[in-house]
Amino acid sequence: SAVISQKPSRDICQRGTSLTIQCQVDSQVTMMFWYRQQPGQSLTLIATANQGSEATYESGFVIDKFPISRPNLTFSTLTVSNLSPEDSSIYLCSVEGGGLGYGYTFGSGTRLTVV
Amino acid sequence: AQSVSQHNHHVILSEAASLELGCNYSYGGTVNLFWYVQYPGQHLQLLLKYFSGDPLVKGIKGFEAEFIKSKFSFNLRKPSVQWSDTAEYFCAVNEAGGYNKLIFGAGTRLAVHP
Predict the structure, then answer these.
(1) Which of B22, B45, B48, B83 has the highest CB neighbour count under 10 A?
(2) What is the CATH number of the domain that holds B23?
(3) Hey, how many other C-beta atoms are within 10 angstroms of the C-beta on A27?
(4) Which residues of A touch B49 (CB under 8 A)?
(5) Does the distance separating the beta carbons of A43 and B90 come in below 8 Å?
(6) From the candidates A29, A30, A33, A43, which should be mutated to test the interface with B, based on the most B CB atoms within 10 A?
(7) Shortest Cα distance, chain B CAs vs residue A81, angstroms
(8) Among residues of chain A, what percentage have pLDDT more than 70?
(9) Which residues on B lie below 8 Å from A47 (Cβ)?
(10) What is the CATH number of domain A4-114?
(11) How many whole angstroms separate alpha carbon A110 and alpha carbon A40?
(12) Which chain B positions have a beta carbon within 8 Å of A96's beta carbon?
């Protein structure tokens, strides 16, 4: 199955700044997904990233706040911009594990605290 | 729109007790179903999945789940829990066919006491 390396694992950021999270996969994958897990809550999909095209954002999430890059089939970044305390969450990337029928693999997550 | 409902938010059991966690989904088409587990301080791991075929699916660590199409349910079961099963359990669904996004339930936090 695919192995994901997500960086940073955690960060504390000042209000108004931005944080860029990297997701590196050890194999080529078609789709990469970015999720947010707010404290004590479930996972909410932010956007789906295809290589070579713009990310598709879910309702309530916009590109200006969560710009995503997908330069190739093994890498993606999510930037959380203009940070506020409400952005304090765990952010996770996910990919298909090893083809259709395998399931989805998740990164270890980035715990963001905004102060 | 798809949605997933997990009925139990917190479950407390003693070791050796049986476990059943409820999961119902709302979607008009064909779906794939998943159960993920998140142990304290660790990342999400896939417990089991249903894509097609036998509706009784066996996963890792002695877990199983049964897909009942008529009830739109995919309940997770384990006959005898251990302290090490203490974790949060998430049911998820996506539309069948292709690499489609997962929709997660709210999660069930399970605490198993020795």
Answers:
(1) B48
(2) 2.60.40.10
(3) 14
(4) 103
(5) yes
(6) A43
(7) 23
(8) 95
(9) none
(10) 2.60.40.10
(11) 15
(12) 99
Q: Identify how many contiguous H helices and E strands chain B contains and give both numbers.
A: 0, 12
Q: How far apart, in whole angstroms, are the C-alpha atoms of residue A72 and residue B54? A: 37
Domain chopping of chain A, boundaries: 4-114
Q: Is the pLDDT of residue A99 over 60?
A: no
The 10s digit of each residue's pLDDT in A34-73 is: 999 998 888 999 999 988 788 999 999 999 999 999 999 9
Asked if A11 and A56 touch (Cβ cutoff 8 Å), the reply is no
Residue with the two structure tokens 């713009």: A54
Residues B49, A43: C-beta atoms closer than 8 Å: no
Three-state SS for B70? helix
* Per-residue pLDDT tens over the stretch B72-82: 999 999 999 99
Tell me which residue range forms the domain holding B57.
3-113
Answer yes or no: is pLDDT of A102 > 80.
no
Q: What's the pLDDT at B26?
A: 94
Give the number of A-B residue pairs with CB atoms closer than 8 Å: 44
